Input
Amino acid sequence: MALRVLIVDDHASFRRLARLLLIASGFEVVGEAPDGRSALAEAERLRPDAVLLDVMLPDRCGAEVARDLAVLPAPPRVVMTSSRSESDFGELFEWPAGSTFIAKHELSGAALAGLLARP
Output
């Protein structure tokens, strides 16, 4: 059974590209959201296995959204993403517990599967 993914990013072009890439790699993309508010609503409605979540959203920080996702009755795995590399955020940025990170330019089906396979 394919992993069900919700893509959250404020750039429609990235959502489109990620959707095509993930579907071609065997994932089921169950939905998309352009901001934190709609991400939470869609996650509650769709109950994805994983959320590919942009770090910087127009209405909220992606880390805040990830923390809210973690308290849902069936919390999805969260993979944070950004056009910047993880090291650009420095030690002051604290990733939400249980989340992982991938830079947008490194996104592939295999990379996402590897991140989701981690405990």
Observations:
- Helices lie at 12-24, 36-46, 62-69, 109-117.
- The chain is about 35% helix and 20% strand.
